[in-house]
Design goal:
- The termini are far apart.
- Helices cover 42% and strands 25% of the residues.
- It has two domains: 1-108, SH3 type barrels; 109-153.
- The chain has a five-stranded antiparallel beta sheet, with no helix packed on it. Strands 1-2 form a two-stranded antiparallel ribbon.
- The protein is built from four helices and seven strands; from the N terminus they run ααβαββββββα.
- The radius of gyration is 22 Å and the shape is elongated.
- With 153 residues, the chain is an alpha+beta fold.
Length: 153
């Protein structure tokens, strides 16, 4: 997660979270991908966009699948088809849902830039995992050498 403030006080954490600039709030709109999409794309999460199909996994609308109708960047909420309530006037309105409470089932890939972003994230993840694997191999080699030295003494 993005570090917004050095303070550990909840009051200051909340203030920083809700007063964050929009380019940082965009990162808060990230949701996990379904297992199938994770295998297919090689990444685990992406920011939600209008047109994505999501599954609500928490709350009163748990189990509801629907397209994202609107993304409210200022309030850090999304609006999903099927997640509606009646307001005081009797009109049907969409219920705001936090992006952490949904899972992306189907992506809207009509934008070429989004495909580039997915590819960039996948490459970065692969590089990180390969470096991690190399470090583990080096550590295991060092441990084996230490055991040999201990056995000789």
């Amino acid at each position: 997660m993005v570090t917004l403030t050095k303070s550990s006080q909840p009051r200051k954490q909340r203030k920083a979270y809700f007063n964050a600039p929009l380019h940082i709030k965009h990162k808060f709109l990230t949701a996990p991908l379904s297992k199938e999409l994770q295998r297919q794309l090689g990444i685990k999460r992406l920011p939600i966009r209008k047109g994505d199909t999501v599954l609500i996994v928490r709350g009163d609308f748990k189990g509801t699948k629907g397209k994202v109708v609107r993304v409210d960047l200022k309030k850090i909420r999304i609006f999903v088809e099927g997640a509606t309530i009646k307001n005081a006037r009797g009109e049907t309105v969409y219920y705001p849902i936090h992006p952490s409470k949904v899972m992306i089932i189907e992506l809207d890939l009509s934008d070429k830039k989004r495909l580039e972003v997915i590819e960039r994230i996948r490459k970065a993840r692969e590089e990180y995992l390969s470096k991690l694997k190399e470090r583990k191999e080096k550590l295991s080699e060092v441990k084996v050498e230490e055991k040999k030295v201990e056995q000789k003494t």
